[in-house]
Amino acid sequence: MATPLDNIRVLDFSTLLPGPMATLFLAEAGAEVIKIERPGRGEEMRSYVPKWGEDSANFAMLNRGKKSLALNLKEAGERERLIPLLKEADILVEQFRPGVMERLGFGYDDVAAINPGIIYCSITGYGQSGPKAARAGHDLNYIGDSGLLALACGTPDTPVIPPALIADIAGGTYPAVFNILLALRERDRTGKGAHIDIAMCDNLFPFMYWALAEGQVTGDWPGNGDSLVTGGSCRYRLYPTRDNRFVAAAPLEQKFWDIFSEAIGLDPALRDDGKDPQATTDAVARIIAAHDADHWQTVFEKADCCCSVVQSLQDAVSDPHFKSRGVLDRTVENASGERTMALPVPVVPQYRTSQETSRAPSLGADNDMMPRIGASEITEKPQ
């Protein structure tokens, strides 16, 4: 079955999470993805725990269906071996700090001179320019610098770290894929390639649309956990149950709030949460805390009021809903033939490859696809 990215070749110089997940999405849509790794250890994710066969389970999840070339990019002869692939590539993804690829001789201008149609995607924390461009950082730093973390970070006694790597995935992976596809469309029209500058920190601001609107228009900027969708309302909160689980209550609209109030037996005098918000919140909390999670699961399945019991991840992967939609059907296999659930990707079924099971490549497994060349076709630059 043909897929949208058939015959598209991607050279992936990235490591860890944002770039490898982006190229996984492209591979699932049919692109040929070739990882460029350092000899010996390969990219860092291979050594992570838990181990699953030769490499880590994380590496297998993020790199299935790709190829691997092991090259020492600090050696001119090894770099030269990449030239034929660069000439044929459609997309290059890199995740080094600004200036590193230039020092290696593979900056955008260098590669575009070889292949003017290349779509060259650089993923960094702070972008290719600006005062913070060269600064080291991780997800927690990026969500902290953007103001996102301050909207719901717990208390000094119990600071809360978000359970997802928001900047890496939402600020890095998704914008990279989105803009690569836009660049492919533009190349179809003009024949020209592009350098795409993906700054994970920049791309977090869309998640704060409501806070930006509120702060700019009213002058009253949202703080830590004090707004409608960060815990400042009784209509959008986590309420502990008697057995130390949580109800995720989100009956924001009045019709859902009315159904919710009736379902839990909230005192009619407290149902107008505008009169004394704290009194209403406290009353709801007492009611929810009086029963176990299973009780509330039954109540809210009947009430249908945007309320549910928080599931564990283990429960979620067994949820009949996700099973019925085939979300978790694909598998990844290691070199020993063991299989486990593959990471689901947001590519709709009709645009995905038909391959139900795939492997991550062993280090350097595809080095034989590069011819050894003698003449230098790219000038070595000072380190």
From TrEMBL:
Residues 351-383 are annotated as: Disordered. It comes from the Bacteria. One of its GO terms (molecular function) is transferase activity. Keywords: Transferase. Residues 351-360 have a biased composition (Polar residues). This is Crotonobetainyl-CoA:carnitine CoA-transferase CaiB.
